[in-house]
Design brief:
- The longest helix has 21 residues, at about 285-305.
- Helix content is about 25%, strand content about 30%.
- Helix 1 (about 15-25) packs parallel to helix 2 (about 60-70) and helix 1 runs parallel beside helix 7.
- It has helices spanning about 15-25, 60-70, 120-125, 135-140, 155-165, 185-190, 285-305; strands at about 1-10, 30, 45, 55-60, 75-80, 80-85, 95, 100-110, 115, 130-135, 145-150, 170-175, 195-200, 200-210, 215-220, 225-230, 235, 240, 275.
- By secondary structure, it is α/β, with parallel strands linked by helices.
- The strands form 5 sheets. Strands 1, 2, 5, 6, 7, 8 and 19 form a 7-stranded mixed β-sheet that branches. A 5-stranded parallel β-sheet has the order 10-17-11-12-13. Strands 14-15-16 form a 3-stranded antiparallel β-sheet.
- It contains 7 helices and 19 strands.
Length: about 300
């Protein structure tokens, strides 16, 4: 059994930044990177909105540079997932890893991220970074003067669609019903935008193209009629699923499964456990926000460790 002062679960922007700050504070953190190192950012091609990289940077490269920086200051990285958490408020937390090892720690930072909710179509994976995205803010600029499709009818879908009108030639909103679930003000903004066209009572049944997305296959749920719609971008705006299932019953979560934070800090409902990044952020879900919260979590964890010495 291994004992650590601080364990960080996740090595995306939140986890890696937490590791940098914690390592520089001589906390010798252990970062558990899981089986998808870097989280969602590694599924993004070129990142153009992270400060300091005016020419853009590959998402995987960005996360690996963060990790390299953390290791330079003394952080240790293990590519393990946590099979089970036993959290002990104000005491020692126990982590059972996929490889069979057990790690205990005085403080824990949860930076496990979130996963976009897709429809589950085969083409969604095939065209990932070749037309398929779950983040208009991240990837919208790649679709200058191109037609794109947004799937969904809630506020998130309307926000994505409105944002995409800055770049796309036309934004098709495909919704399985004949009215939106979005709030009245968001629905009105979308309806009033001349670049947004609604495709009602319709679902996407397939994504088609060669090396890049070229069109989507559609089916009208009222008539059964099938059609195809040319587009270069496909944005699934069905929300995100926080990767917090392992914390259920041990940390307080909101109705959507995001970790609740308290008093404007990164503190969770369990003393000695902190959270950063998309697993605790239902609103912004941006790499720079995750990195900032990772910094905050490391500072909060450091102060907590100092208080129990």
């Amino acid at each position: 059994m291994e004992k650590q002062k601080l364990v960080i679960v996740g090595n995306g922007p939140a986890g890696a930044t937490a590791a940098i700050y914690a390592a520089r504070a001589n906390l010798s953190p252990l970062m558990l990177a899981g089986n998808q190192p870097g989280g969602l950012l590694t599924m993004t091609g070129k990142v153009e909105n992270f400060p300091g990289f005016p020419e853009g940077i590959d998402g995987f490269d960005l996360v690996m540079k963060m990790q390299e920086q953390a290791e330079k200051f003394g952080a240790r990285v293990e590519y393990e997932t946590v099979e089970h958490f036993t959290l002990n408020p104000g005491g020692v937390h126990r982590l059972e890893l996929s490889g069979g090892a057990v790690v205990e720690c005085d403080a824990l930072i949860a930076a496990s991220g979130a996963s976009p909710r897709y429809l589950g179509l085969a083409g969604e994976e095939k065209f990932r970074n070749h037309g398929v995205s779950a983040c208009a803010t991240c990837d919208g600029a790649f679709f200058e003067n191109m037609p794109v499709v947004v799937v969904g009818g809630g506020d998130s879908a309307m926000e994505e669609a409105i944002f995409l009108t800055r770049f796309a030639s036309v934004v098709y909103v495909v919704h399985r019903r004949d009215q939106l679930k979005a709030s009245p003000i968001m629905a009105a903004r979308a309806r009033e935008n001349p670049k947004i066209k609604f495709v009602w009572n319709t679902v996407v049944t397939g994504l088609l193209g060669g090396s890049d997305l070229e069109k989507v296959a559609l089916r009208n749920v009222a008539t059964g009629e099938e059609s195809e719609l040319p587009c270069r971008g496909y944005f699934c705006a069905l929300g995100h699923i926080p990767n917090t299932r392992s914390f259920a019953g041990q940390l307080e979560l909101d109705d959507a499964g995001y970790i609740r934070l308290f008093d404007g800090t990164t503190r969770t409902s369990c003393e000695g456990v902190f959270a950063a990044g998309d697993c605790a952020d239902p609103r912004y879900r941006q790499a720079i926000c995750a990195a900032a919260s990772g910094c905050q979590a490391a500072i909060d964890a450091g102060r907590y460790l100092e208080s129990i010495r």
